Amino acid sequence: MAQVELEDVQIAYEDHIAVDGVSLSLEVGEVHVLLGQSGSGKSTILRALAGFERVRKGELRIGGRTVDGDVFAAPEDRPVGLVFQDYALFPHMSVGQNVAFGVGRGAPIIDELLELIGLAHRRDAMPGELSGGEQQRVALARALAREPEVLLFDEPFSNLDPELRADLRRQTFELVRDRGLTTLLVTHSAEEAMDVADRISVLRSGKLLQTGMARTLYQQPSTIEVASGLGPANVLEAEVSAGVVRCALGEVELGRVSGDPRGEGILVIRPEDIVVARGSGAVRIVRERFLGDRVFREIAVGGRVLMSSRPAWEPDAQDRAIQVRRAHWIPLNRGA
Ligand SMILES: Nc1ncnc2c1ncn2[C@@H]1O[C@H](COP(=O)(O)OP(=O)(O)OP(=O)(O)O)[C@@H](O)[C@H]1O
């Protein structure tokens, strides 16, 4: 059953259309990520689901009930919990009061939630006395206290340092999944999106480009923007002739190319799928970066500079040639 539905939604700020024709459906218990660059419309969608923006066209439904469109449900009448980037705790209220806000002081769920976020012993502390990670846990507990059906997260981990961010992200999504809460997370980090999402929707300039599982979007992007939104990608013009795909790298066997290669198109090749192997070819390494587990290289070949990466433990070949392990085909009209 769909828990959250957007049907052909348009949202505008005066004459600026921020979200344009977006349709999306989240299953009950799904963790869904809106991924896109700054200004792509992610937060606007989240705010509209929370009831802080109105849709101009289309409809929003939560739990099968229309909350915006022909009718409008006020924010407090929607079964949603919202967690922002900047915690937004009430500074003059203690941790316990912040969590209990809007649900009543004595509610047993408050103790349970404080226990859950590991801050039961800080119940009387003020937000200013907590670290950023602790404050964000309080904000999460506060959102959960209303027992929402849907959780909305707007870049909730971006103000935290990287190690803490990864830890808190893991804890948060364990908790969300244990409770079976339908969740929509906004982020511009592909790594974060792939880490937590059941499915990802990639947005650009207010339009939805592609929805799918991380693996599908990474390996079989429908456009160049989706390809580069999920991670580094080499993009090469190519054409199919006589049963092989030809590009600046030479020939790639058809069997190594997913999609539907025919005529002219674009090949998307991930750095790890460009293998610098033993052989004779005009391959020059322009730049090399050692990243611990892998070595990332820029290599000049066929008049182009391409990105290639290999596991750091792999021995380097002396006489070099390029092999393409895997590539994906985007038809020309969709790649533009
Ligand atoms: N209150 C507002 N008034 C006018 N325009 C706005 C308002 N809020 C957002 N916009 C515009 O709408 C578009 C979408 O903004 P939105 O905040 O949804 O993007 P975003 O993808 O969440 O970006 P970010 O990652 O920077 O938060 C942008 O062009 C932005 O400038």
From TrEMBL:
A Gene Ontology molecular function term of the record: ABC-type ferric iron transporter activity
SUPFAM superfamilies (alphabetical) = MOP-like (SSF50331), P-loop containing nucleoside triphosphate hydrolases (SSF52540)
Look up keyword Transmembrane and say if it applies: no
The alphabetized UniProt keywords are: ATP-binding, Cell membrane, Ion transport, Iron, Iron transport, Membrane, Nucleotide-binding, Transport
From which organism does this entry originate? Bradymonas sediminis
GO CC, sorted alphabetically, is: membrane
Question: Per its record, how is this protein called by name?
Answer: ABC transporter ATP-binding protein
**Superkingdom of the source species:** Bacteria
Matches recorded under CDD domains: ABC_Carb_Solutes_like
